[in-house]
Design goal:
Layout lengths: L21 E6 L5 E5 L2 E7 L5 E6 L4 E7 L5 E6 L3 E5 L2 E5 L10 E5 L5 E5 L3 E6 L4 E7 L8 E6 L5 E5 L4 E5 L2 E6 L22
Antiparallel strand pairs: 1-2, 2-3, 3-4, 5-6, 6-7, 7-8, 9-10, 10-11, 11-12, 13-14, 14-15, 15-16
């Protein structure tokens, strides 16, 4: 037989969520759920009494990506705004002052803890914790067709970049070593997400 699935908890603006349109969810190492919506960032945590508490911030900002680094900071990628890093209760802003000239970014933290950002024109940046700035390490095309929508790491440490119109670019070090597009069987259009399965297959 089949087991019946039930909704255990439901979150919406009626009980504190900033918006019904959810773009991303990330659980931190303390068990808090961070929810990025079209209208801000939310933290959902269970109180000592067992009830869920929702707090929200960054209103009027679309939250596109969420990543937690090894220092337990939360990186918040936005659409049409800037990149922010939440450490404890303080936000730091990264944009032109940190070497990021483009406002639309995808984020990734690799197996070594390195933070990278892909830009709206196909540039790949690496974050340097010593300087607090991002450095461009790769330019894939310098056009909107090369926009990097998502980044994933394979079992060999290569980075796979999903783009708008150039398919998938596989990067080793700071060089593109392979490209997958319609000639390899991919459908036309952008690559919105990439996933590595439990066997290490992309």
């Amino acid at each position: 037989g089949t087991s019946e699935q039930k909704v255990v908890d439901f979150f919406s603006p009626a009980n504190g969520l900033s918006d019904n349109n959810v773009w991303c969810i990330r659980e931190d190492r303390h068990g808090n759920l961070w929810v990025g919506t079209e209208n801000g960032l939310n933290r959902i945590r269970r109180s000592a009494s067992g009830h869920f508490e929702i707090s929200s911030g960054m209103k009027d900002v679309l939250i596109q990506y969420l990543y937690e680094d090894r220092e337990e900071s939360l990186w918040v990628g936005t659409l049409g705004s800037d990149l922010r890093r939440l450490r404890d209760t303080t936000f730091s802003t990264y944009w032109k002052n940190a070497g990021l000239p483009y406002w639309r970014l995808s984020l990734h933290r690799d197996s070594r803890g390195v933070i990278r950002a892909g830009s709206s024109v196909g540039d790949l940046y690496r974050f340097d914790p010593a300087t607090g700035k991002f450095k461009r390490v790769l330019r894939t095309g310098n056009t909107i067709e090369s926009e990097i929508l998502c980044i994933e790491e394979d079992a060999g440490g290569n980075l796979w970049l999903g783009t708008v119109f150039r398919g998938i670019l596989v990067v080793n070090g700071d060089k593109v070593v392979k490209r997958y597009d319609q000639k390899n069987g991919l459908p036309p259009g952008g690559i919105l997400s990439l996933l590595k399965d439990w066997r290490g297959r992309m």
